[in-house]
Amino acid sequence: MEEGFLARTFPSTSGNAPTPIDDDLRLKLYRMMLRARHMEQRAYDLFMQNLVKGTSHLALGQEAVSTGFAAAMRSDDYTFCTYRGHNHTLLRGASMAGILGELMGRECGLMRGKGGSMHLTSVKHGAMGSYAIVGAHLPIATGAAWSAQYRGTQQAAVCFFGDGTTNIGAFHEALNFAVIWKLPVVFVCENNMYMEYTPISDVTAVENPAADRAAAYGLEPVLIDGNDVELVFETASQVLTRAREGGGPSLIEAKTYRHGGHSRADPGKYRPDDEVAAWLERDPLPRYRQRLGKLGIDEAALSKIEAEVEAEVDEATETARNSPAADTSIVEIDVWADGGSAWRN
Hints:
alpha/beta; two-stranded antiparallel sheet; globular
C-alpha cells in the first residue's frame, strides 16, 4: 500500500482467519478486472458507433474496487451501485451480453432494453439496481440490511457511491440508522476525486470526504488505495465478516480515479494533465499484472486469460448486436408490482 493511505483492519469476533490470497485467487482477480475493463472499453466503442442509447458513465480505471468486493461477497449478498455500475453488475454474475444489450436498447438486455446504462439490475445475482439519483440508494441498502438482520440470514448489503454523495443528506441519514441498528451493511465510497466536473476538495471541509466523517457515527476511519485489488479484497473480507457476525456497518473510502470524463459527453479537460498522467501510472490492471509476474505467475496463464476475455467480449458484442431492438409493446409491463401499468389505489 502506498504512502498516504490509512488502512484499519477489523478483527473477526469469532477469530476466523482471513481468506488467504493464493495464486488461484490472484488469477481470478486478474480475470475479473480484465473482464470489467474490456467490457467497458467495448461499451465506449459501441457508444462512438452510435449504438449505445442515451449517455453512459464508465468506470475505466476503477475496476479494482468492484473486483475486490465482488470476489469477497457471498452469492446471496446485495449490491447497490450508482449509474457508474456496469462493472459492479457484471462482476456479481450478470450476463455480459445482457449488459451490453441493455446499453444498446436490445431485447437481450437485462431489462429487455427498458433500463439503459444507468439502471442495470439483476436481482437473481444480488445486483439490486443502479441508481441515477445521487445518494438515493443508501437508505435502500440500509433497508435491505435491516431485512437480512430481521430474517437472520447473515446476508450483507454493500452500497457503492461516489465522493459527491458524501455531501448528500441521505448519506448521513443512512449511516446514522445503520449504526443505531448495527446493520450488516458496508458503505463504499469510490473517491475518484471529482463530483462530475468539480473537485470534491473544492466543496468539502475535510480532506477525506468519507473516512474523515466516520468518527461522527462511531465508526473507524478506513481509507485505502482503491487501485490495489488485493488490499480491496482483504478489506472487503474483513468488514463483510464483521457485518455477518453482528459487528454492524463499516464505511470504506477507496481512493481511485476514472480515466475519462464524468460521462461520454464530457472530455474531462478540467483535470490537470500531470494529475491524469500520475493516476494512469497507477492503473490497477497493468499494475497488478506486473505484480503477478514478480510473484512468479506463468506468463502463459496470463496470456490465456487475456485471450479468453477478448473472445468473451467479442461474443457478447455479437449477441447484443444481433438481438432485436426493444419492442415498444413492453413499455406498459413490469411497471407496478402486479406487472401492469395501471395505477392501483
